[in-house]
């Protein structure tokens, strides 16, 4: 292949990844707490001077951290974080996961958990546990303090600040893990927890659909360019064969 085809191939390969992430965003447009994923594309130079060629390469992805819409549910077990901050959950392997999806349930032991069974962590690092006689009659203040209807403190929800949040690794269902070599998350001093709300996906479906169409067109153009370059090469070989 000629340099033209190699450049077009590098672009087509990068655009394939872009199509995958955009389609993934569209599939999660209604997933609570989901953050849109976008690829990072960069130009890689090869050669120097008049012979320099720039190829396209995907160097990773990042999360779009804009808040999703807050939707009122009226369920006292639903919580959302307004502004900065992430809820902490204990993953099945013992590690800590982070999410903005605060739709919770109370298990038989009184622990607040996700529907998938991952315990919500409190400020001290352990699960938030409610007494047997409380049920779902709890009050969760904007600071994350959990009380019974009489005001007795039962615990406090952990809301942390994450420095490298845009590089967190998606796990599915709006749950994320810290990237390698990330710093330790710190407790938010003034979190804004809203009881009876959940945060929706921050995916703009119309924008993502428009982006997907643009990517598909660019991909088709790259493929056509490779085909045209291949045809020119065949034509040149045929003419040389007649000399």
What's the gyration radius in Å? 25 Å
Q: Helix and strand succession?
A: HEEEEEEEEEEEEEEEEEH
Shape: elongated
Cα-to-Cα separation, first versus last residue: 23 Å
Helix share, percent: 25-40%
Beta-strand level of the residues, as a percent range?
25-35%
Give me the secondary-structure category: alpha+beta
Major pleated sheet: 6 strands, antiparallel
**In which order are the strands of the major sheet placed?**
13-14-6-5-12-15
Give the averaged pLDDT, no decimals. 87
The residue ranges in which pLDDT falls below 50 over 5 or more consecutive positions are none
Summed up, the helix count is 2
Oligomer: single chain
Number of domains: 2
Beta-strand segment tally: 17
Report on this model:
It is a single chain. The chain is 26% helix and 28% strand. The protein has two helices and 17 strands. The strands form six sheets. It has a six-stranded antiparallel β-sheet with strand order 13-14-6-5-12-15, with no helix packed on it. Strands 9-10-11 form a three-stranded antiparallel β-sheet, with no helix packed on it. Helix 1 packs antiparallel against helix 2. It is elongated, with a radius of gyration of 25 Å. The mean pLDDT is 87.
SSE map:
Layout: H1 3-27, E1 37-46, E2 53-63, E3 70-72, E4 79-81, E5 86-90, E6 96-99, E7 104-106, E8 112-114, E9 139-140, E10 145-147, E11 153-156, E12 159-161, E13 169-172, E14 175-177, E15 186-187, E16 193-195, E17 197-199, H2 205-242
Antiparallel strand pairs: 1-2, 3-17, 4-16, 5-6, 5-12, 6-14, 7-8, 9-10, 10-11, 12-15, 13-14
Helix pairs in contact: 1-2
């Amino acid at each position: 292949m000629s340099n033209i085809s190699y450049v077009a191939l590098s672009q087509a390969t990068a655009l394939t990844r872009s199509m995958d992430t955009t389609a993934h965003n569209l599939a999660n447009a209604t997933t609570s707490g989901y953050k849109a994923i976008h690829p990072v594309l960069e130009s890689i130079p090869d050669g120097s001077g008049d012979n320099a060629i720039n190829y396209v390469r995907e160097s990773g992805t990042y999360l779009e951290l804009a808040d999703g819409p807050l939707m009122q549910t009226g369920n006292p077990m639903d919580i959302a974080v307004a502004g900065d901050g992430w809820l902490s959950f204990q993953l099945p392997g013992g590690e800590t996961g982070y999410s903005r999806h605060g739709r919770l349930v109370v298990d038989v032991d009184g622990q607040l958990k996700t529907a998938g069974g991952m315990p919500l962590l409190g400020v001290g690092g352990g699960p938030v546990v409610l007494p047997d006689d409380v049920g779902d009659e709890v009050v969760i203040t904007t600071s994350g303090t959990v009380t019974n209807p009489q005001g007795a403190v039962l615990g406090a929800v952990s809301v942390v600040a994450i420095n490298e949040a845009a590089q967190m690794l998606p796990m599915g269902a709006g749950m994320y893990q810290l990237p390698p070599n990330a710093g330790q998350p710190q407790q938010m001093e003034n979190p804004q927890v809203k009881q009876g709300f959940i945060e929706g996906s921050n995916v703009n479906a119309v924008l993502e659909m428009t982006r997907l169409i643009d990517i598909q067109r660019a991909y088709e153009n790259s493929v056509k360019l490779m085909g045209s370059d291949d045809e020119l090469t065949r034509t040149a070989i045929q003419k040389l064969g007649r000399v």
